[in-house]
Structure formats: C-alpha cells, structure tokens
Amino acid sequence: MFKEKSHKKGIIRSENYLSSSYRPPKPQARDQEIKQIVEALRPLAHRKEPDNLFIHGPAGVGKTTCIKHVFDNLEQETYAKTVYINCWQYNSRQSLITELLIQLGYPAVRRGKAVDELFTKLQTWLDRNRSIAVALDEFDQMSEQEKVIYDLIQASKNAEHEINLTLISNNKPQSLKFDERSHSRLNLNHIKFNPYTASQLHEILEKRVKEAFRPDSVSDDIIWSISEYIAEKSGDCRDALDLLLRAARKADYQNERKVKGKHLQKAKQ
C-alpha cells in the first residue's frame, strides 16, 4: 500500500527546512526589524533600563522567528536572561507567572498558590540574579493584560535588576486592553512587520530550496511563481513554504525529477 509509491531518491532531501517550526540560523529579509529589536534591548547588556516593545503584524511574517533569534544572541553575548512565553498556552495571570518562574529555574508551583506570592518570587530572583527580557507572544490572547503588565512592571521597579517586556501580536496597537496609566508606564516602542513582498519571499524560498531539495529540482521560475502568488494573496511565508512542499510532493508522487507548473497548479487547488 505504501511501498508502491515510495522512492529511494525523491526530489525532497529534507522537509524539515520547509516546516513552519524550522528556525534558520539568521532570519532573512528582516534586517531592519532585527536592528530595531536589538537597539531596544541593548541597555540590558549594560545593566540599564531597556525599552519595552510592541511587535505587531499579520501571521507568518517573521515576528516570532526574529525575537527568538535576538534572544539567542542576547543570552550568548550578555549577562541577561531571556524568557519566551506563548499566551495561547499560558493565557491567565497565574499560568503566565508560573511558567515564567519555571523558566527561571524554580520548581513547578503547586496549585492554589497565591499569585502575589509568585510575583514576590520573581522580584527575589531579580534581586539575586540578573536582568530579564520577557517576550509574550500572541499577547492578544492574554485574559488579564492590564494586571499582568502591572505585576511585571512592579516586580522590576522594586528589584535590583530590570525586566524588558516585548509584547507580540497579530493585531494592531489599538487592540491592547490597557488604560492610559499602563500605556504610560510601559512606554512601548512599536515595531511593525509588514507582509513579505514577492522579492522577500523569493529570497527566503531560494535559500530553503537549496537546503531542502536535490539540485536542479526546483527552478527559479517556480520559486518566482510561488513568491508572486503568495505576496499577492497574503505575504505569509508559511503559506509560501506550504505551497512549495505540496507541489514538490505531487512531483515526487508522479516520479518527476522537477517541480513543474502543473504540480504547482494542483497544489493551489
């Protein structure tokens, strides 16, 4: 059933490079945005107060990839600690601070522990250790936005070391459920990630094709066709990678040595 269509040498060498979970060593086509993030976090390297950030833009435009890339370098090159939390998974005040403490090395907290007591633990950690950069991805999913922000700001305000807050969202700044006082305390710098252009998608796909496919199996014309189609449709890199993978699988299934226009058309259906 499965052996009849399997190949010893298909055109795809590794689908990993086409997966949305794959993180390249350096994000492509986002140099300016990375530079803005680095400048906001740079004071942490000198144990000074950093800027807080609100990173926004549609899905699949590199927001998470870029912040994780910068965080990796921040930990490698400075004394700061980084924490990344997705608010889809940790969307309440208690679950967020619990996950933050676990990433800081505390044992899992038993249920029923007072939230204020947990934030006191965070302040103690800041007094005894180092500054922290905290990224809260999908922040629009957080049910208690204002309380969480207030808690984190207060923990930093009363401690020896600083907290940077980077809020990441698919929605515009107006979606934040803050009052004027919280906005003033945070003093967020906004970084907007626009949808990828056809040229940017081509740059990304060209690199992934070299990593994921056997030589000469995906032409530059196919890469441009996908890039232009997705740029017009969504500008979402994940969509472009998914379309490329589906077209390649169709070519593989038909024992073709190249991805052709007919495979691309079928993949769009």
TrEMBL record:
Domain ORC1/DEAH AAA+ ATPase: 49-168
Gene3D superfamilies found in the cross-reference section: 1.10.8.60, P-loop containing nucleotide triphosphate hydrolases
Domain of life the protein comes from: Archaea
Keyword terms, alphabetized: ATP-binding, DNA replication, Nucleotide-binding
One term of GO molecular function: ATP binding
Gene Ontology biological-process entries: DNA replication
Stretches of the chain forming a coiled coil according to its record: none
Keyword ATP-binding set for record: yes
InterPro entries assigned to the protein according to its UniProt record, in alphabetical order: AAA_22 (IPR049945), Cdc6_lid (IPR055237), ORC1/CDC6 (IPR050311), Orc1/Cdc6_arc (IPR014277), P-loop_NTPase (IPR027417)
Domain Cdc6 AAA+ ATPase-type lid: 203-269
Protein family per UniProt: Belongs to the CDC6/cdc18 family.
Name under which the protein is recorded: Cdc6-related protein AAA superfamily ATPase
Species of provenance: Methanohalarchaeum thermophilum
